[in-house]
Amino acid sequence: MPMLSKASDKYAAFKAPSLPDRTWPSKKLTKPPRWLSTDLRDGNQALASPMNPEQKWNYFQLLVDIGFKEIEVGFPASSDMDFQFAQKCVAEGPSDVWLEVMTPCRKDFIRRTVEAVRGAKRIIVSLYIATSDNFIDTVFNTTREAQLRTAVEHAAYLKSVTKDDPAHKDTTWALMWSPETFSDTDPAFAIEICRAVKEAWEPTPEVPIILNLPATVEMSTPNVFADQVEIFSRGFAGDDSVCVSLHPHNDRGCAVAATELGQLAGATRVEGCLFGNGERTGNVDLVTLALNLYTQGIDPGLDLSNLPHIRKTVETLTQIPVHTRAPYAGDSVFVAYSGGHQDAIHKGFKKWTAGLNDTNNSNNNSKSQIWKVPYLAIDPRDIGATYEAVIRVNSQSGKGGIAWVLSQALRLEAPKAILGAFSPVVKTESEAKGRTLLPEELTELFLRQYSVRERDPRVLSLVKRELQPDSPTSTSSAASTAGLVRIETVILVNGLPRQLVGHGTSNLEAVRFGLSAFADCRLEFTCTLGKLAATVASDGGFAASDAQAIAIVMCSGGKRVTWGVKTADTEEEAILLAALSAALDWHKELPLHHQRLRLLPIVHSPIVQAVA
Ligand SMILES: CC(=O)SCCNC(=O)CCNC(=O)[C@H](O)C(C)(C)COP(=O)(O)OP(=O)(O)OC[C@H]1O[C@@H](n2cnc3c(N)ncnc32)[C@H](O)[C@@H]1OP(=O)(O)O
Ligand SMILES: CC(C)C(=O)C(=O)O
Fold first, then answer.
1. 285-303 pLDDT tens trace
2. According to a count of CB atoms within 10 Å of the terminal CB, is the N or C end of the chain lower?
3. 354-368, 516-530, 541-555: which has the highest mean pLDDT?
4. Which residues line ligand 2 (CB under 6 A)?
5. CA–CA gap between residue 139 and residue 162 (Å, rounded)
6. Of 519, 523, 518, nearest to 508 (Cα)?
7. Which residues, other chains included, contact 355 with Cβ-Cβ below 8 Å and sequence gap of 6+?
8. Whose C-alpha lies nearest to ligand 2, atom 1?
9. Distances (CA, A) of 303 to 32, 62, 387
């Protein structure tokens, strides 16, 4: 059947309860909820191939490592496997973790469930029955009154075989009561049945009853769910023996939003699954919820530092891949392809790093560290991702993306002008390959384009001396040569070797001085330094190596600008080689009749003899 032209013939709008004086919209989340992972129950019961005991145990350990203090381990009365798994968790699980076990309102099931967790330190028994009129009618074929009686009867029975039974006195028992299908339940009835169950259980402030509100099926917009939760919470206002909890599903794709608003509306505990696994469209995604808090400056109390490992483990155990665009965890969440995004990320990252390194900044330990990198909701490194993976360069990319890759790979903040000159080369290469360039491919292209690793064949020799005050090579007075350097080099000009000698307070100054006498204008050099990464790390990123320095030198004079990019063992040597290369190119680009670099042939020069 195709979709109807008149949807209202088949679907009725959800009847939202009225709450004109709602207070949740002006509240803020300021702390994390109590988290419960239901991966091993609601998540596992929704798998095409449920996990075997060994896999469940691996998953359990992962949850413990992440820091969950409440873990639902299964439905022990449903099968021997779930029964034995609960026993194993009791015997081998950490003593500070509450184990949660689920049972329907059936006495034989309750007895078996309690048996499965005999000897445990802390147990939450999750008891539930549906409370929506639709379920009461369709599934149970009964009335609200009868459903309430069943609920109370089984809560009282559970009490008699747990906390009232001396044989179980060493266990701390908590009841979690869920009006299943709360999202579709008259809030007044939800309050009525929960009050009755609470009375039967007799909780204390030390071990409150958990009143768990499931959006068994998500029925409406998150604001409506928040109103439902606020109405319910008001029914237990000021009652410190009650903890209001949420158990949202994601049928309308709004589970995360509904859970956040539900907390504003009064809930202090949340049940869900990692990466939103669970029945149909899943339970609420706990990773997203926790990291949403984290990026608001709130410690979620869960350690997701190694998210790639967590993701891999979950994918292997559930056989469900995490979507490439899943918040925080997907492959694509930190990847920018388009030029505008890349440029903003690069600039933002540079500014943020500068703030971190600015030791003079009195804000250094506070404001300047606040993450404000455009387009990135979180610092990838906080959750185990690398910066190198952030930007992928293709023909949609501009200078910003190239700058990012070079800054990561070569620790080099390449000047805008050389990026502009290199950008068309990158686009052509990406188009020729028909795909994105990997960071290492782009770096290699840069190194090749500017012949970075090859020594310039026009530089035949290069000697640098520090001039001493009484240096015999100095032509000036002893006092004035102190701290100067002298560069002696033999270069090929129009195929002929020429000697060039220059002095200056720095290498660049000396080269400039040596060349200026023969140029038709003053030459200026500006230099940028970096490190050439020698190896590509196993994760595809770069491992920076300090072995090789890399220098970009821009030579400008008149209206002409040329570039030299060279590597060497030391920064000093790299700068000199790059500067000479840039200067030779600058000179080469002069029309022949303007070439003034007519240096003396050096047939008799001792330097040339040394080179020979
Ligand atoms: C929303 C949730 O996720 S709730 C948890 C759901 N999880 C699971 O069901 C996984 C484990 N379940 C099982 O292994 C089985 O369903 C069992 C062992 C619990 C029960 O098996 P069966 O006795 O064969 O019943 P079945 O699976 O058909 O369940 C439906 C019956 O349970 C009843 N039922 C449903 N919820 C409850 C409840 N909370 N309390 C009591 N009975 C309930 C239904 O009304 C129906 O009763 P009927 O047979 O008299 O019509
Ligand atoms: C019964 C509750 C806890 C549940 O799993 C649901 O409604 O989805």
1. 999 999 999 999 999 999 9
2. N
3. 516-530
4. 42, 128, 178, 180, 212, 214, 216, 247, 249
5. 29
6. 523
7. 361, 363, 364, 368, 369
8. 180
9. 13, 11, 20
